[in-house]
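# step 3/5: fold
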Amino acid sequence: MENFTVSKFYAYNGPNFYLNSRAFVFNLSIQNESPLHIYEDAVSKHFPEIKKHKLDDVAELFAVTVRDILKMEIGLYIDKYDVTLDGADFVVAVEHLDEKLSKKCVKIVAEWFNKLTNGEEYDFGKVFIQLQSEFDRTLYGGPTIYSLVEAGFRLNIPVYYLFEENQFQWGYGKKQLRGRSTTFHTDGIKDTEFTMFKDMVGDFLEMCGLPTPNGTNCFEEDEIVAEALKIGFPCVVKPVAGHKGNGVTTGINSEEEVRIAFRKIVDSAKAEGVNFDGALVQTQIFGTDHRLLAVGGKFIAALERVPAYVDGDGVNTIGKLIDIENDLEIRLDNARSPLCKIKKDDNLHEFLHLQNLNIDSIPQQGERIVLRRVANISAGGVSINVTDKIHPTNIKLVEDIARFFTVKCLGIDVLAGDISKPWNEGNFGIIEINAGPGVFMHLAPAYGGSIDVPAKILLSHFEKPINSRIPIIAGNFISNELAAMLNGLLHDINPDIYVGALTSDGIWFNHQFFYKNPEHDQNVKIILRNPQVDFAIFQHTRNDIYDFGLLHQGADIVILDEAHPAEEKVLEDQLLPGGLLIIMEKDTCKIFREGRETDRFYFDGEEEKDKKLVRSIERELERLVYKYE
């Protein structure tokens, strides 16, 4: 019997009637529930914090359970919820990230509570593991992109997803930053493209007198063997356009090993259906692998990367030791874990074979077995923050290189005998340069302190959170006439200002009609996505609020004209500190700041009302134009 039934699912991408944030909303019908402690005891076994909430009823427990599941046990930046009554049903709203996963979580909680009501067993632990796996495959499941989205939340920088472009946007209008992972619209496309070709980057570094191993890009097997013989062994073979250490073979000491490494790269390109761009053979440089990171042309962080390894105990096989290592919390391999799992793939088996070992070998007590040639975190490598150890001369090297590239984030991979020594006084070589590098490993290294690189990336663009915003007027009724008057006054203040406005007729840019999308939040997004917009004006009626929400967060001026309670509630919540609240009723207009009435005027008819309103806020508009400039 179903005592808990969920229905009427709806997802909002911004503030709405239920929450001042993104929200997943649904109806909850409860029949014949058991005592609260039955559900609370079961849920607290998985989420102990539930006991601290002192919840009043089962409906609220249901909401908190959904919210805590959506946190995925990895501390996702989700907190808000609300429960209200709608007739015999409850309306539940929870802050969320992914609509599809949120709906599934709601249904799972209903199934769980139904089982508890009927005294039946429910293996939530098994279900939750599957949910976590599904989260990893959502837009927010990637460690780097989620860390950047969360940084926006924490810094109060607006962020939302642009579905049509498969990228995120931080900030509004002319202030915006758009991108996916650490590749942004402000990056030079040719510079980004250039960093993908290791042979050309090597030539560039060599031209500049910077330390990089000698190498040649080859397209034929005999050609790469000949080049390897020229530079001498040991050498390295890697794909010229590879990434994350894929296809890299180090420590090559014979012609046959060169041929094997070359064939792997060719076969991999065929299997992936991509063009073979060549294989690079380079002089082997000895030292520890490091990722040096520049943001906005400035050195930010240094990370030492050690190849995956296990330490023997004299009892377990290498395979079992890998399993034990992979079971550690630090290797959960999700959006918040510092390390990836160690995969028992062909590269691992081959590297063990070179050491006269295999997966069934039993290392002695304390014997360290290195499992891979490469130290990449994605290949199971271990990360160590060494930002405080890098020599100033090496910091200058990073910044010198970064100045040549118009990219927000630049990762420079080097091998160094000792990163605390100047590059020109020791064993040091630049292996490759990466535009759009992963940064979560700096935020959560396996060892050493955290460097909040995501925040540094956003602040390198905005400098301060307020710089992510443009001035916004929001009201429940913005007529075309009022929008035109506001547009005209703004151009009197600054003739170059570009105004985006949304009225009941649709979108206007500098009071030239553009388009009306049938979905209200899409109209808002079109205005905020336009990188020319300096000032935005939005009409949000109660139907818009119920059906779509606002999308944008915050408004400097809120205009309530004979407002419906839903319009009044939601729009007043958006008023930013120090903003103006304008309330118009019948023939009277009252203007408030910080809850105190600062002005009042009377009007006779719509035309007079609009004219007097515009005159009364002229100074405020001028202040806003220069405040956000």
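# step 4/5: annotate
The chain has a mean pLDDT of 94.
# step 5/5: archive (pending)
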